[in-house]
Amino acid sequence: MKVLTANRLSDGIAVWYAEGGWAETVGHADLAHDKAAEDRLEAIGAAAGANNEVVDVNLIDVTVVNGLVEPVRLREKIRAAGPTIRTDLGKQASPAVAGVA
Amino acid sequence: MYRYDEFDQDFVHARVAEFSDQVQRRLAGEITEDQFRPLRLMNGVYLQLHAYMLRIAVPYGTLNSKQMRMLGHIARKYDKGYGHFTTRQNIQFNWPALSDIPTILADLASVEMHAIQTSGNCIRNVTADHFAGAAADEVADPRPYAEILRQWSSVHPEFSFLPRKFKIAVTGAERDRAAIQTHDIGLHLKKNAAGELGFAVYVGGGQGRTPMVAKKIRDFLPEADLLSYCTAILRVYNLYGRRDNKYKARIKILVHETGEEEITRQIEAEWQELKDAELKLPEADIHAINAYFAPPALTDRPEGDAEVKQARLDSKGFSQWLDQNVVTHRHPDYAAVTISLKGIGEVPGDATDSQMEAVADIAEKYALDELRVSHEQNLILPHVARADLKAVYDALVEIGLATANSNLISDIISCPGLDYCALATARSIPIAQEISQRFASLERQREIGELKLKISGCINACGHHHVGHIGILGVEKKGSELYQVTLGGSADENTSVGEIIGRGFSSEEITDAIEQIVDTYLGLRLNPEERFIDAYRRVGPAPFKEALYAGETKAA
Question: Which residues in chain B (292-351) have CB-CB distances under 8 A to chain A?
């Protein structure tokens, strides 16, 4: 399973593609279960890059735990949460995300 | 310290205006990311895991209080209340919005600072001994030469698109505190038999995936020939350095593949064409730059001895800090102070906005308005009257920056690692924090003595692990973080690259392994004066391997 991620152009904040837009958290990102869906997400990412909404667009591996999307690799887990050494910063600092990452 | 002249100020303002326009065009979608990326990198703007990162140049690590206050202001207003001092004596902010960066750069320009050439394949911030101008063992202040190199290398048309980045360091003392032999060019300022100033020139040092100790290609280069000789080196590199493979593009590879003798011949031949032309430094220019670095007028403060003696009796904390973080100054009534940014369990090199401002106040009040950033990620007050040391200590205690661990095992160099960096393969900071906590007892640290521990979160070696007495390299293996240990590295006048001791350790095992290495050293050292690095050089890796892995061999 994969989701589409990028950083927002204006402030560099990590975002994930969800429900037709770019969400600041990974939990409800649009899932690609097969190659066709991956291609569709990639096309969306390429368009958003060309449209100057986001930069550094990538598909990443994820799993779903308790109905919420979680990245597989540590690097992407840290992007989704924030620095592990500063839990007061990044996505994890917001109560809505704290339980997820 | 150096003050911008009209040319410098205009140049920096012009660059702010140019980059502001580029940012506006990027945000408006008029230029693509591929077009913008090289432009932002030339201005120190990276994209990391969570946000953009802005790396600001601190030329040869020298700051005044006004500049430090501005860094505090930027941390508070545009970032998340802190900054990270780096091994190139620079500072990085981890969270600036791209749309704010033009304003940040304008604020920096107002205090004679910028972010130019803190990234890209150009000549980077020239670093120098952090005790420059203060050290008792110095032949001359290396910073005027670093400044001459800065002026020469700033947007140098010929050297703005090198095969790869290029780093220069200068020291003015026999005892190398600037790690010059790990640089593309290392310069050791010295005097010849006739008492004239010049440089021993080292070329081709570096870390990264192929660590190399620089080769000394000239024992004495007259000071007037500094720029012509560096130009000759850069020309040979620019012409023959590899551009086909990023990992083989640094000058260290060219020096290694060409051979010391041949590369020296090429550089000397190039230099013959340049040495008597316009790059020869006029004496008047050297004097003019030197005048900016004229030592501050230090009034005699002979009362310091008695006051320090009394304060030692009154405070054990002060006494320990004095022993560990205060070094001899060329003026007997003064001292140079290391402000440790390595509090136990803290993030190495990080300082908060209010700490930066408080340190600026201390520098203004007690240290003739001068501050330094060390490549070991600490701050330095280079000129403090011994009579004021207790007041400085008390002020540092108040802001949590009086940890007395300079050069001890918890004075760890660490890169940001996977907590921030897009290139990292493993985390560095949590490992540094855990080791620091394990060795929290100052008594134990002092018993161990000088020990340079350095951690990198990937093979690019920003955390200088290759030249740590104990080096730790974090890699990703089968989806987990794995930490390789190297022993015997050193970044001083006897530079050496550490040797990998054996299989790596998991994040749960690594601190135990480090403790085992330290205990092994304590058990085999000849006496407490034999430092870890000296003991390692005497006995080699065998006893450490035995301690770490013997059980495994038997079990297998």
Answer: 347
pLDDT number for residue A100:
44
Averaged pLDDT for residues B246-262: 97
Does B27 lie at the interface with A, CB-CB under 8 angstroms? Answer: yes
Over the stretch B399-456, which tens digit does the pLDDT of each residue have? 999 999 999 999 999 999 999 999 999 999 999 999 999 999 999 999 999 999 999 9
ipTM of the complex: 0.95
Are B142-292 and B314-398 equal in CATH topology?
A: no
Cβ separation of B418 and A75 shorter than 8 Å?
A: yes
- B429 part of contact set with chain A, CB < 8 Å: yes
Contacts of A21 by beta carbon, 8 Å cutoff, 6+ apart: none
Tens digit of each residue's pLDDT (9 = 90 or more) over B118-162 = 999 999 999 999 999 999 999 999 999 999 999 999 999 999 999
Instruction: Kindly state whether B75 is in contact with chain A, defined as any CB-CB distance less than 8 angstroms.
Output: no
Distance between CA atoms of residues B349 and B417, nearest Å: 13
Which residues of chain B does A50 touch, with a Cβ-Cβ cutoff of 8 Å?
32
* Residue B477 contacts A where some CB pair is shorter than 8 Å: no
Asked whether the beta carbons of residue A7 and residue B347 sit closer than 8 angstroms, the reply is no
Class of CATH domain B142-292: alpha beta
Q: Where are the domains of chain B?
A: 6-109, 142-292, 314-398, 416-555
Question: How many angstroms away from the CA of A62 is the closest CA of chain B?
Answer: 13
Helix (H), strand (E) at residue B429: helix B429-438
**What's the confidence (pLDDT) of residue B554?**
53
Q: List the single residue in A with minimal CA-CA distance to B457.
A: A75
The CATH number fitting domain B314-398, selected from 3.30.360.10, 3.50.50.60, 3.30.70.100, 3.90.480.20 = 3.90.480.20
Does the pLDDT of residue A95 top 90, yes or no?
no
Is the Cβ pair B98, A82 closer than 8 Å? no
Dihedral sign for Cα B202, B207, B210, B213, please: positive
CATH number of B416-555: 3.30.413.10
Helix (H) or strand (E) holding A21: strand A21-23
Q: Are B420 and B48 in contact, with CB atoms under 8 Å apart?
A: yes
Do A14 and B50 lie within an 8 Å CB cutoff?
A: yes
pLDDT tens digits along B19-57 = 999 999 999 999 999 999 999 999 999 999 999 999 999
Q: What percent of chain A has pLDDT over 70?
A: 94
| Rounded Cα–Cα distance for residues B530 and A31 (Å) | 60
Q: Do B29 and A52 touch (CB under 8 A)?
A: yes
DSSP state of B166: B
Cα–Cα distance, A75 to A24 (Å, whole number): 17
